[in-house]
Amino acid sequence: MRLTVFGATGGVGQEIVRLALAAGHQVTAVVRDPARLTVTGEGLEVAGADLTDPGPLLPALTGRDAVLSGLGARSRKDAGVAARLTRTVLRAMDSAGVLRIVVVSAAPLAPPPQDDPVVDRVVRAILRRVLADTYADLREMEAELERSAADWTSVRPPKLTDGPLTGTYRTAVGGVPRAGRTLARADVAHAMLAAAGDPGTVKQTVGVAY
User: Fold this and answer.
1) Average per-residue pLDDT in the chain?
2) 32: domain CATH number?
3) Are strands 204-209 and 170-173 parallel, antiparallel or unpaired?
4) Where is the NAD(P)-binding domain positioned along the sequence (predicted)?
5) Tally of CB atoms within 10 A around 16
6) Cα–Cα distance between 149 and 158 in angstroms, integer?
7) Structural domain count, the chain
8) Which domain holds residue 129?
9) Fewer Cβ close by (within 10 Å): the C or N end of the chain?
């Protein structure tokens, strides 16, 4: 596939680029600072853009099959960035005629499974309070997707780790896996790439966890 990756210098974004190149996809990585992208490989094109205006993004989107986005707040003070930047990406996609987009969100946005352990319910409740601004940003990002004409998928992992790629994890379309507590960024990227080619995830949220 011909893919465009936003947020390509972030933890999940770099893993998306790495795995996509390894799978033989053609990748355009859109970044604010190309010097921060450490991934290299055949089939990679790097485009510099700050995502304040959809116009400059058109060359990086025209003729692409799908967009994968690792955009999100790096810290609590960045809350609001996911919705704002995704809005720009969606406008650019509409102009370029690209429909498919897969984004990374967060598991606490989903209602917990009815049989989730009590400790997991308590931890999620605490996280929702502590990271209220961050989750509000992600909810607005998902609302932007729902209002758009895009064929979107929002992948919702739990706590992210820097563990190695396993390719073995649980998924739940429209929910989150029971007692799902962690997932490596590499496996988040793996799940997002799999979703990009899976029509069963279009206009759906997908919970992922070990």
Assistant:
1) 94
2) 3.40.50.720
3) antiparallel
4) 7-199
5) 32
6) 27
7) 1
8) 2-209
9) N
